[in-house]
Specification:
With about 200 residues, the protein is α+β, with helices and mostly antiparallel strands. The protein has two domains: about 150 residues, Electron Transport, Fmn-binding Protein, Chain A (Pnp Oxidase, Chain A), CATH 2.30.110; about 35 residues, no CATH class. The chain contains five helices and ten strands. Strands 1, 2, 3, 4, 5, 6, 7, 8, 9 and 10 form a ten-stranded mixed sheet that branches. Strand 6 and strand 7 form a beta hairpin.
Length: about 200
């Protein structure tokens, strides 16, 4: 689930919430899953992965990760991302372009304390995306951390990212491919709305 806090009254954000509520009412599974695409300046590649969108607060979308991960390095060198959601229960696709930045240390600490100890143990024990000798070593390290560490203390290498959209596309699927595509893009500090061909 996604938590909405003090949502802005700007049209595309209200429309996002409306589409979310519709999918939620249809019991959409993994409703918080969102694909984030970033650019690696080092390798000149675009990389995508799914993360769990936890909050939409005012006009910011927030998820959490390991700050030493490859995607975090990519965010650091290129702070523009694309995001994609598809809710099959309502046949809605939402494309987003945004600028991304880290959330505050205090915000990270506060949220970390609300998570399960099991999730926190993994966040503490995982050296995300680094090569390993065996999966057993990952499990052994996780179990060691689960038993021994203060699992409410947020490590400095873990935290949130917030991204602020400047572009939305709401795609509504149609059985005859007469798909409806509503675009909202920021132009001169206001949202411009246009429709485009399927």
């Amino acid at each position: 689930m996604i938590t909405f806090k003090n949502l802005t009254n700007e049209v595309p954000f209200l429309l996002f919430k409306e589409k979310y509520d519709q999918a939620s009412s249809k019991c959409q599974t993994s409703i918080e899953a969102i694909s984030i695409s970033s650019y690696s300046k080092e390798f000149h590649e675009v990389n995508s992965r799914f993360v769990n969108l936890k909050f939409v607060e005012k006009n910011e979308f927030i998820f959490f990760t390991n700050y030493n991960s490859p995607k975090s390095e990519e965010f650091k060198s290129h702070n523009q991302i694309s995001a994609l959601i598809y809710w099959n229960s309502t046949n809605i696709q939402i494309r987003i372009k945004a600028k991304i930045k880290k959330t505050s240390i205090d915000f990270n600490k506060q949220y970390f304390r609300t998570r399960s100890l099991e999730k926190n143990a993994l966040a503490i024990s995982s050296d995300q995306s680094r090569s390993i000798d065996s999966y057993k070593s990952v499990k052994d390290n996780y179990n060691k951390v689960l038993l021994s560490n203060d699992l409410t203390e947020c490590p400095d290498y873990w935290g949130g990212y917030s991204f602020t959209p400047y572009y939305f596309e709401f795609w509504g699927g149609h059985e005859s491919r007469l798909n409806k595509r509503d675009i909202y893009q920021m132009k001169d500090n206001s949202w411009e709305h246009l429709l485009v061909q399927p």
